[in-house]
Amino acid sequence: MRERLLELIPEFDLIQDADLREKCLKTWEAAMEEGGWTPDDLTRMPFTLLINPCPASYIDHIRAVTLSAVRVAEVFAQVYGDRVPVDMDLLVAGGLLHDIGKLLEYENRDDGMTVQTYAGKLLRHPFTGMELAARFDLPVEVQHIIAAHAGEGDKVKRTTEATLVNHADFMSFHSIQRMMLKKELAAKM
Q1: Exposed, middle or buried: residue 142 (CB in 10 Å: 0-12, 13-18, 19+)?
Q2: What is the pLDDT of residues 134-152, one digit of tens each?
Q3: What domains sit in the chain, N to C, each tagged with a CATH number?
């Protein structure tokens, strides 16, 4: 399972701290096991239930969000230097784990549709994702990124890393959502 996961998400190798990388991988493995997912399932799982049909998989979204946040951090380093520091390991870990709770929030029905579980309706993925990260002793800064990446985090002061993941997440979601809208400006009475 781990070998396939690393093939699908090479961004794990961007985490320089071996202990942090291992904790991220263990969190992914636990989430897949508890949710009943395989790495290949995640290449077919829609990253959101709010866009149907969804043209991007869970794996696509995780990679896009992580890489978008990394690229912005690189621009910050180039332009701002040390004035706006970004911890790249925390940023990458948070990007890779921001939606990990969806592996517990979602399930596949027999008809092939991905739906929200009963537990997922009560505890959305920022909550279950943070719990998974805490269980594997990930730094509180990574837990913060997971907890604050969605609307649930709008009431907290986000770290720079959490802000980058939050905005990368919404750039991905809104771009794909708009792409799927087929509005024809026409009316008839």
Answers
A1: buried
A2: 999 999 999 999 999 998 8
A3: 2-46+54-178 (1.10.3210)
